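[User]
Protein folding is very new to me. Any chance you could explain this protein sequence and its structure tokens? I have pasted everything here:
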Amino acid sequence: MDYVNAFWVGGLICALVQVLMEKTKMMPGRIMVLLVVSGACISALGWYEPFQEFAGAGASVPLLGFGNVLMKGVKQAVEEQGFLGLFQGGFRAGAVGTAAALVFGYLASLVFNPKMKK
């Protein structure tokens, strides 16, 4: 049942994003920021953990999950370091995922032949 929940929750998130892309004039970058900020806000309210427990990878893999990771890092850093944790926590928590995206994106560009859009 875990796989089913992950599938339909992740699919629902993707479908809602597709509706935003098709029916509004929002650019993809703004939609991505909206997802990250929404994940951070849901995490700040304390609702993300039960949501992730129910949906598994369907909740943790999309950009909502990245917002949750950033917020958890900020919360932990603020508890440990006080005010300066506001500025450090998100960077520490998101560093591994961001670095992996950069490295694998670069490796993919070496393997495949990327072309600029005209």
User: Anything to note?
Assistant: The mean pLDDT is 90. The two ends are 45 Å apart (CA to CA). Residues 2-111 form one domain. Residues 7 and 104 are 25 Å apart (CA to CA).
